[in-house]
TrEMBL record:
Domain Protein kinase: 31-283
InterPro entries, sorted: Aur-like (IPR030616), Kinase-like_dom_sf (IPR011009), Prot_kinase_dom (IPR000719), Protein_kinase_ATP_BS (IPR017441), Ser/Thr_kinase_AS (IPR008271)
UniProt-listed CDD domains: STKc_Aurora
Residues reported in the UniProt entry to bind ATP: K41, K60, E109, F110, A111, E160, N161, D174
Cross-link (Glycyl lysine isopeptide (Lys-Gly) (interchain with G-Cter in SUMO2)), chain numbering: K158
Family: Belongs to the protein kinase superfamily. Ser/Thr protein kinase family. Aurora subfamily.
Name of the protein this chain belongs to: Aurora kinase
């Protein structure tokens, strides 16, 4: 339990920091590196402590040489640019970033619970209860709705890209594939195979509704423990997606099935709006957001 005295002491430290309310040039020297949290494509992620305040963060270190070698400069800059503008309780906050000759450091909110994917694997029978799934889908939908309101399509929603905070709330992360979509419809194929929407397989133009499809796949995976179109080969997965060939185990409730089937629609225009997902009777029965 954190005592009021500790909070006051911490707040005093924050207010006495040169960065408080002022332009401040952060550098890696402001942080003390702690244990490793994981490895990413271009570097590693560590827990870290801001030296003057003791504030815990995660630092994602990216090696510039690896980014250049993979020709991903634009993708990385886009991830930084997009994530630095998104401020929502269920989106992993990019607090600041800095760089030196060889590295880029992303200072992000620390998600003490780690990857949601691990929670799913460790859950009884490798799947979440309907109550847990309703809370989780509500929080991800709220985050994605906020992204869409800011003209950002995530394009890579899956349990591996969602982290869990200390209080159990979800944090949508990994904006490496996301794009700013100012009213424009796009054509690049990206994302993970099991989560690919039909319009991307058919290489048609697509819009924000690709995320609605992925939310249907995500909810199914929460409840069943594996994505609905998972198959042995890529061709079989594609065929199942294009036929919307979904099998629901008997333990999935009619309410959950109804919601998933309203997101997994071939026509992107027919997919349920995100507001309607949050207000769907199955979600409403099982989850009440704290701020209401
Ligand atoms: N803010 C954080 N808090 C706690 N753990 C984190 C945080 N950020 C990343 N991690 C851990 O580090 C791992 C790698 O980070 P991340 O997924 O951001 O790298 P990446 O380059 O996007 O990886 P990839 O795209 O290959 O999945 C994550 O899977 C997670 O376990």
């Amino acid at each position: 339990m954190i005592a009021t005295k500790d909070i006051l002491e911490f707040e005093t430290k924050v207010m006495n920091h040169e960065a408080y309310g002022n332009p401040y040039k952060w550098s890696a020297r402001d942080f003390e590196l702690g244990p490793g949290l994981g490895r990413g494509k271009f570097g590693h992620v560590h827990m870290a402590r801001e030296k003057k305040t003791g504030y815990l963060v995660a630092i994602k270190t990216l090696f510039k040489s690896q980014i250049t070698k993979s020709n991903c400069e634009r993708q990385v800059m886009r991830e930084i640019e997009i994530q630095s503008h998104l401020k929502h309780p269920n989106i992993l906050r990019l607090l600041t970033w800095c760089h030196d000759e060889g590295r880029i450091y992303l200072i992000v909110e620390f998600a003490a619970g780690g990857e949601l994917y691990k929670h799913l694997t460790n859950a009884p029978h490798g799947r979440f209860s309907e109550r847990q799934a309703a809370k989780y889908i509500y929080q991800v939908v709220d985050a994605v709705e906020y992204c869409h309101q800011h003209h950002v399509i995530h394009r890579d929603i899956k349990p591996e890209n969602i982290l869990v905070a200390l209080n159990g709330d979800l944090k949508l992360a990994d904006f490496g594939w996301s794009v700013h979509a100012p009213s424009e419809r796009r054509k690049t194929m990206c994302g993970t195979l099991d989560y690919l929407p039909p319009e991307m397989i058919k290489r048609e133009v697509y819009d924000v509704a690709v995320d609605h499809w992925c939310l249907g796949v995500l909810l199914y995976e929460f409840l069943v423990g594996k994505p609905p179109f998972e198959s042995e080969g890529q061709d079989k997965t594609y065929a199942k997606i294009l036929a919307i060939d979904v099998h629901y185990p008997s333990y999935v409730s009619p309410g959950a099935k109804d919601l998933i089937s309203k997101l997994l629609r071939m026509s992107s225009k027919e997919r349920l709006s995100l507001d309607k997902v949050k207000n769907h009777s199955w979600v409403q029965q099982l989850y009440k957001p704290r701020n209401l």
